[in-house]
Amino acid sequence: MEDIELFVINAISKFRREKQLSQKELGIILHVSASFIGNVENGNNAAKYNLKHIALLAAHFKLSPRFFMPL
After folding, report:
1. Topology of 3-62 in CATH?
2. Nearest C-alpha neighbor of 13 from the set 3, 4, 23
3. Are 56 and 67 in contact (CB under 8 A)?
4. Distance of alpha carbon 22 from its chain centroid, rounded?
């Protein structure tokens, strides 16, 4: 897994916990299953977020997509 992919996974996972969102709730926002979120956060799976996921999350919370990307 690339460093940028790991950064995005960690950033979204941290954000999810800070917002007290369940994996199911995040899945609804991103139009994916809760098990997909679990697989991404597990890190032992090839599943990862893509640009569409970042855009959906940013739009939902009225943030810039850069919020979930490394500076």
Report:
1. 434 Repressor (Amino-terminal Domain) (1.10.260)
2. 23
3. no
4. 12
Asked if residues 58 and 31 have their Cβ atoms less than 8 Å apart, the reply is: no
Instruction: Tokens for 69, please give them.
Output: 């990307």
Say which residue, 1 or 14, is predicted with more confidence.
14
**DSSP structure string for 33-55:** -HHHHHHHHHSSSS----HHHHH
Q: What are phi and psi of 42, to 5 degrees?
A: -65, -40
> How buried is residue 8: exposed, middle or buried, by Cβ count under 10 Å (0-12/13-18/19+)?
buried
pLDDT digits (tens, 9 = 90+) for 13-71: 999 999 999 999 999 999 999 999 999 999 888 999 999 999 999 999 999 999 999 98
Number of residues written out for the chain: 71
Q: Please, are residues 19 and 26 in contact by the beta-carbon 8 Å criterion? A: no
